[in-house]
Amino acid sequence: MSRIIHRLRRSDLTKVAVTVISRLLVGGALLAQSPLPSESSALPVTAPCPNPSVLDRQALDRAVEVRAAVAKDPCTARSTLLRLASDQDWYVRSSTALNENLSPVLLSNLANDVSPPVRLSVALNKRTPASLLEKLARDEDFNVASAAIRNANASSGLLEDASHSLQWWMRVSVAQNPATTILLLRRLASDSEPYVRYTALKELSARKPGTEN
User: Fold this and answer.
1) Domain holding 54: CATH number?
2) Which tops the pLDDT comparison, 18 or 136?
3) Rounded to 5 degrees, what are φ and ψ at 153?
4) Exposure string (b/e) for 147-185, b if CB count within 10 Å is 16 or more?
5) Is residue 179 part of a domain?
6) Which residues contact 188 (CB under 8 A, 6 or more apart)?
7) Same structural domain for residues 68 and 133?
8) Contact call for residues 170 and 156 (beta carbons, < 8 A)
9) What phi-psi label fits residue 212: left (phi over 0), alpha (psi between -120 and 50 degrees) or beta?
10) Of the candidates 59, 48, 142, the residue with the CA atom closest to the CA atom of residue 95
11) Does some domain include residue 71?
12) What's the mean pLDDT when you consider all of the chain?
């Protein structure tokens, strides 16, 4: 075993470490000791969270990929997420911003990050409140603004305003939001921009019959 490890490149060791964080440390090792469920089993197997000190220790790892893996882990404690949200590497901060266990305060702080990918992650987070999405929808980076408008937590007011935007990509983003009402989608289906019409019609056809929202 020692010879095999010695032959691994540094990048390989990083991949191994990430695998350990993502699978073994969140309970994969424990599950491996239990019999595997049959293929016909309909009940999903949920890996238990490890001891908090394990992820807390790995959050200090020198490898960016390992810290990022910890940042996205739903088992990571909020105190650890607080530290990772201030990591010097934008990729780690961006990964932290995707974690749905972040506090509203920490989400708000990350929404002001100088790095666009970090703000993008906040806009994509399913727990980001409507008030914060209102701010991100005005971001100078169109990827961030578009993601905020597509977020299902976006308010009806934001979606209505964005549907009247002169920027066609903002109107497309409204059509892509699963929370956009049928009435608004029908209006966008008559938009002057072909791709807006296409997106709205595609979403309308995907809605279940009888859906009124």
Assistant:
1) 1.25.10.10
2) 136
3) -85, -5
4) bbbbbebbeeebbeebbebeeebbbbbbbebeebeeebb
5) yes
6) 163, 171, 174, 175, 196, 197, 199, 200
7) yes
8) no
9) alpha
10) 59
11) yes
12) 83
Contact 56, 69 (CB under 8 A): no
Domain hosting residue 211, numbered range = 155-213
Q: What is the pLDDT of residues 44-97, one digit of tens each?
A: 556 678 777 889 999 999 999 999 999 999 999 999 999 999 999 999 999 999
Single-letter code of the amino acid located at 125:
N
User: Full-prediction pTM beyond 0.85?
Assistant: no
| pLDDT, tens digit, 9 for 90 and up, residues 91-137 | 999 999 999 999 999 999 999 999 999 999 999 999 999 999 999 99
**CA 26 to each of CA 20, 23, 171: distance values in angstroms, whole numbers, following the listed order:** 8, 6, 41
For residue 72, which amino acid is it? K
